[in-house]
Design goal:
Layout lengths: L13 H9 L17 E5 L5 E4 L3 E2 L7 E2 L7 E6 L6 E6 L5 E6 L9 E4 L4 E5 L4
Antiparallel strand pairs: 1-2, 1-9, 3-4, 4-8, 5-6, 6-7, 7-8
The structure holds zinc ion.
Zinc ion (ZN) binds next to loops.
């Protein structure tokens, strides 16, 4: 369930923890999920909360799995001024783990591009939200 207390320890890899806790970014093109076209549900690797449906995924060409619409209330955002840029950081609303960034250059109907680290998404083929 999305509202249980969450531990980020356990089965996560050091790279996953680096992204979730330290706002790390995986290498572009490194995620198997870039080519994932099946129907299913993308959950937070940190806590299991449902974040995105495959129906909201699209090919952005950025090298990271990209979505135009999260599940309602599934993610939170805040301004990120690191690396000399002003960006909007995206995190899991349930465990606060860092997921990626959102940019205003996505497709309709939202016009948003949720640029996610595939390592912190847990894809469940065939699962419906
Ligand atoms: Zn989470």
């Amino acid at each position: 369930m999305a509202d249980k207390p969450v531990s980020l320890c356990g089965t996560l890899t050091p790279e996953q923890l680096r992204i979730l806790r330290e706002r790390g970014t995986e290498r572009p093109g490194s995620s198997d999920l870039n080519d994932e076209k099946r129907d299913g549900l993308y959950r937070c690797a940190g806590c299991g909360a449902p974040l995105f449906s495959s129906s909201a995924k699209y090919e952005s060409g950025s090298g990271w799995p990209s979505f135009f619409d999260p599940h309602p209330g599934a993610v939170g955002t805040q301004t990120d001024q690191s690396h000399g840029m002003v960006r909007t950081e995206v995190h899991c609303a349930s465990c606060q783990g860092h997921l990626g960034h959102v940019f205003p250059d996505g497709p309709e109907p939202t016009g948003l591009r949720y640029c996610m680290n595939g390592l912190v998404l847990d894809f469940h083929p065939g699962e419906k939200s």
